[in-house]
Amino acid sequence: MFIEPSSHKCAFNALFFVTLHVSVGLITSIQPILAQPSPSVEPSSVEFTTPAATSEEISPSTKEESSPQFNRYFLDTGDTLNVIVQRPPGLYRLGIGDSISVSVQRFPDLSFQAAINPEGNIVVPLLGVISLQGLSLKEAEAKIRSGLNRYVIDPIVLLSLSGERPNLSFSAPIGQDGNIIIPQVGKLFVKGLSLEEVQENIRLALSRITTDTVVTSLSQIRPVQVTITGEVSRPGIYAAGVVIPRITDILPLAGGSTVTADLRQVQIRRKLSDGSTVSQNVDLYASLQSGGSPPNLRLQDGDAIIIPRREVGTDDGYDRKLVARSTLAVPQIKVRILNYAAGGIVTQSLPNGSTFIDVLGGVNLNTANLRDIALVRFDPEKGKAVTQRLDGKKALAGDASQNLALQDNDVILVGRNLIGKLQNLFTTITQPFFNVQSFLQFFQTFGNGFLGGGSN
């Protein structure tokens, strides 16, 4: 548990106190830039906020349930379809565009050649118009023989395929208007439809000219840009670097989740072509606990990912060290060290998941008072700094209670004199810290004022 520093007044340099208040006031008046646009998005100072829920939003009733809208890929401008029109297996079936040659023995005047027209018909001497679409060569031959048998006795009819119909397979990019062009048919609107729906619509459109099987696939997927907001290091819009991106591909692009993130309730929002919005909650923490694969939810262009903040009192069972060691968290943290004996302030970068012992590597153990060290951390909910006294010797000796897990922007104070002055100053300051920037600026000014300089 972190405790607030003890309250006891002491004399303090008035000039430095006024300077400190001015420094804190200036830094709290500056709004941080929250968005970190990807290179493909024009830079902007617009602050990205969490999208508001609409009355049309549809949310699954439980985390385990998945909205059907998240199980399918919805087509849009930039996608390219590959449509294969293929004959079904087995006997060759006649279709529009096939050419046949018919020989009638003993009656050469009845022999003919013909191509099956768009209606699936041919014209036969004596018989007129008959339909052959979908028939095998033997079935077509028998149909013509049966018809001629009404005019001549037992005609011998021989039918052969003289020319196969053209291949109707094609590739079609989806245009800005949401349409594709189907050869010999024309435009077909496909934007916002799933691949299965589009395949059926293409089959129906081609049914006027063929009964062949239609197989539709994606030959090119549009670039995916996703907005990520909430408890991440760099909120903004990011272009996915993989063809089929998942949440775990996008989160590292935004610098990873912060220490206050709740990976149990990550929300994905998707706007559909009709203007409605669907949402899906994803539990990334469960996969970290089990060591299994993360949820297999594919992101699409325009999706929004919201990483929520953990609510007060919901830390039970939530292992922050486990999250810190994963690829879902900020990869590195920065810890400031104010060492009275060394006479300066330094910033040390450490892997996320590091502990108090790890930061001692940056402290001169020969001159430092290891038994009198303070860890100061900004509490965003209280808007103030909280402090815990630590014993470095016990931590190095294996006392787990003294080897705390570090967080980004922690401040380590080494030396009884320095800690005492900080405690006295905390009792004098009445203005709260508004954000972590003002917290860090306070310690930078504090270090420069008492130690006579330092480095970032």
Notable traits:
single chain, alpha+beta, Outer membrane lipoprotein wza fold like, membrane, Ubiquitin-like (UB roll), wza like fold, five-stranded mixed sheet, 456 residues, 25% strand
Overview of this structure, please?
The protein has 456 residues and is an alpha+beta fold. It folds into four domains: 14-30 and 331-451, Ubiquitin-like (UB roll); 68-73 and 223-318, Outer membrane lipoprotein wza fold like (Roll); 80-88 and 167-220, 2-Layer Sandwich (wza like fold), CATH 3.30.1950; 99-163, wza like domain (wza like fold, 2-Layer Sandwich), CATH 3.30.1950. Helix content is 20%, strand content 25%. The chain contains ten helices and 20 strands. The protein has helices at residues 14-28, 137-148, 195-206, 247-250, 284-290, 320-324, 356-359, 392-396, 416-428, 436-451; strands spanning 80-86, 99-105, 112-115, 121-124, 128-131, 156-163, 170-173, 179-182, 186-189, 213-220, 225-230, 236-239, 266-271, 277-282, 304-307, 332-339, 344-351, 373-379, 384-390, 411-414. The strands form six sheets. Strands 12-11-15-13-14 form a five-stranded mixed sheet, with no helix packed on it. A five-stranded mixed sheet has the order 17-16-20-18-19. Strands 7-1-10 form a three-stranded antiparallel sheet, covered by helices on one side. Helix 1 (14-28) packs antiparallel against helix 10. The longest helix has 16 residues, at 436-451. 29% of the residues are buried. Residues 1-64 have low confidence and may be disordered. It is found in: Cell outer membrane. This is Polysaccharide export protein. Belongs to the BexD/CtrA/VexA family.
